[in-house]
Design a protein that fits this description.
By secondary structure, the chain is mostly helical. The chain has one domain (8-362). It has helices at residues 8-26, 34-42, 49-67, 74-99, 101-105, 112-119, 124-129, 140-158, 164-184, 193-211, 220-241, 247-270, 276-281, 284-291, 293-310, 316-344, 359-362.
Amino acid sequence: MKVSYFRELDGVRAFAALMVMFFHFFQTADDGSAVVNFLSKIAVFGQTGVSLFFVLSGFLITRILIATRDSKNFFSAFYLRRILRIFPLYYLYLILYYFVLPFVTQSDFADWGQQFWYWFYLQGFPMTFNWPHAGPDHFWSLAVEEHFYLFWPILLFYIHPSHISRIIAVIIAIAICLRLFFVYQSYETFYFTFTRMDELAMGALIAVLELKNKLSTSYFNRYLASFLLLALPLIGLWVWTSGSGILVIQVVKYNFISISFFCILCIILSSKSDSFLNRFLRNRVLFFLGKVSYGLYVYHPFVYLLYATYTPISNVFLNFAGSFLLTVVIATMSYYSFETPFLKMKKYFTYSVSKRSMRSELIR
C-alpha cells in the first residue's frame, strides 16, 4: 500500500494551531468594546482546535501503521521517528518554562514534585484529579497523543485488519463510559487520555475508509450532507448549553466535535483536487504554517506572555498581531535551526511499506 501525501492536510494542521492560538489570546481579552467582547465569546470555538489535531493525528498515524505493518522494524522505526519529531521541542520548552520563565515573571522555581508529571508525560493525571502540579498547561494534549502512540501500534500489529473498525468502536465506547463515570464523580474529563482517545479513534476510522476506497469523489456528497446535518444542531447546542454545566453535555460533546471534524476531513479528502477548498488549503501561507504548526502550538503561550510583559501597547488588536507574528518568527527559527536536524535523522530509521494490499483483509 502506497502512503500518499495530502498537501491539504498541512493547511488543516495550520488551522488547528491557529484556532488554539486565537482561543488562548482572546479568552481573557477585554477592553470594554463590543468587538473584543464578541471575539472573546467566539474564541471558545478555538479550543476545539485540539480536537482537530487529535482527529488528524489519528488518521495520519493509523494509515502509516497499517501501511508498514509487515515491516521487520515496525515498532523501532515508528517509535524512534516519533521521538525525533516530538521529544526535542517538548523538552526544550520544558527547560524554558522551568528555568527561564521564572526570571521573566520574577516567580519561584517549581518544585521537582510538581514538575515531575510533565517530564514523563503524566500531566493529565494531576490536572484531572487536582493533584499538585506546575507546568505548561497546554502540554496535556501532547501527553494524550503520546499515550495513544504507545498502545495503538501494538493493537494494530497484533489484531487482524478486519477487526480494526471493531477496536475503534470499543475505544469510543470506553471513552464515553469513562466520561460518564468521571462526570458523576466530579472529575475533569478534558485532560485525561482515556476520556479523549475517542477523538484519535475517529481519525483512525478515516484511515479505514481510505483502505476501503471510501474517500473517493463519489462519496463527497454523503460527507457534505452528514456535516451539514450535524453542524447546525451542534452550533445551536453549543450556544444553548455553553457554561450551563449540564452533565450529559460533558459526556457527549467530544463525540459531536470529533464527528464534525471527521466529516470535514472526509470532505477534504474526497473532494476533487482542483476544488476551491483543496486549492485554498494548499496555498503557500497555510502550507508553511502547517509545517511549523508544532512550534506554533508549543511556543505561543510563552510568546504571548513575553509580548505582554515587554510591550507597552494597550490596543488588543495590535497586541494580537504582534504576539502572533512573533510566535510565527520563533516557531520558524525553531523549526529550521533546532527541529530540522532531528527530523533529518529520521532517514536512519526508515521502514519498508507493505506491497501487498490490505483492502481484502480489511473488508472480510
